[in-house]
Design goal:
With 209 residues, this protein is α+β, with helices and mostly antiparallel strands. 32% of the residues lie in helices and 25% in strands. It starts with 7 loop residues before the first strand and ends in a 9-residue tail after the last helix.
């Protein structure tokens, strides 16, 4: 997906969701401020910045609860407006970002000034990433055979590794640490021991969505 990446994007902070580049994320938008955010995004760049709320966010009664600096922007690739103003949308992860600041805004939702960290293209020698993909698939094979995991066909090496990272049922900070990796090869290397822990030490645990 080729998009012009703006210097400012709307923020959608959640406590338990981490979006990864290339991966799809369905969302149900029901709060008034995020309905407005969705309408504005559809009329503009279509980008929404998914951010992760820090621990203790529930104690912030007003204003902007603290978030982690690293997030991932997604483009709205499907939207379904509902009769009462809510939306069902699907985001496709586009690029990682780092929140630099949150300038004052008149919108009901938060706006972030961001620094983009685009995923490096898998150019040149693709074999290390392909070997890594095969290792991931081999670890997932027993779960696939048990019907606990579905492996979509036709995904690129990069997209598959990112999709597995997003699907992991692990604490959100552990998933965020994977997103923070500088490239997909480093991310996939860090993913392997997590898969081994989830799928080998506890077979049949169903810890992959």
């Amino acid at each position: 997906m080729s998009l012009t990446l703006p210097s400012q994007i709307p923020l959608f902070p959640l406590s338990n969701v981490v979006l990864f580049p290339d991966v799809y994320l369905p969302l149900h938008v029901f709060e008034d401020r995020y309905r407005a955010m969705t309408r504005d995004a559809l009329a503009g760049s279509t980008l929404i910045g998914m951010a992760v709320l820090r621990e203790g966010w529930q104690e912030v009664q007003a204003g902007a609860p603290p978030i982690y600096a690293t997030g991932c922007a997604g483009a709205i690739v499907h939207h379904e407006p509902l009769d009462d103003g809510r939306f069902n949308i699907v985001l496709q992860g586009v690029s990682r970002f780092e929140v630099v600041s949150e300038p004052p805004t008149t919108t009901p939702y938060r706006i972030a000034q961001v620094r983009w960290h685009e995923e490096a293209d898998a150019t040149g020698d693709r074999m290390p990433l392909t070997r890594l993909r095969r290792q991931v698939e081999a670890l997932l094979l027993p779960a696939v055979a048990r019907g606990e995991v579905r492996m979509p066909q036709g995904m690129s090496d990069q997209a598959l590794i990112n999709a597995v990272c997003q699907a992991l049922d692990v604490p959100v900070v552990e998933k965020l640490a994977l997103l923070e990796k500088s490239d997909v090869l480093t991310r996939g290397t860090a993913l392997l021991p997590i898969l081994e822990r989830l799928l080998i030490s506890r077979p049949g645990s169903g810890r992959i969505h």
